[in-house]
């Protein structure tokens, strides 16, 4: 994706545009066994002042789907304020808000609102903190912290992605 394909409002975070893939995502949480995953992320601009976002993670050996997310990443024009609206396939929607750093090519987000379907299984997610950081022009690191009603905020996922 060329930078001219990205809406002008997204220029502070235009480095996210495109498809990203990891081969070595790592997951852990206090009440889970450590695990690995493969994941593809996509941030696409269709002419609006936001990215359309998709994420699909798969089991590294079986290649079966593990988790999916769909959403939108918006920036308040003329500021470094961002909002990330995400729908998760396990019955949760999250609104995360935060800041982007143009100099550091980094976005930090914290949950401001969560909604779950009435039959979600416990433990229930209470909060996310998420960081996107461009390490090099073709390398993106994503770290996700999660808090549930039975565990404190803890690192849950960490992966480095290559741009496709």
UniProtKB/TrEMBL annotation:
It holds the Pfam family THAP4_heme-bd. InterPro entries: Calycin, Nitrobindin, THAP4-like_heme-bd. This is Thap4 protein. It comes from Danaus plexippus plexippus. Residues 10-163 form the THAP4-like heme-binding domain. It comes from the Eukaryota. It catalyses: peroxynitrite = nitrate.
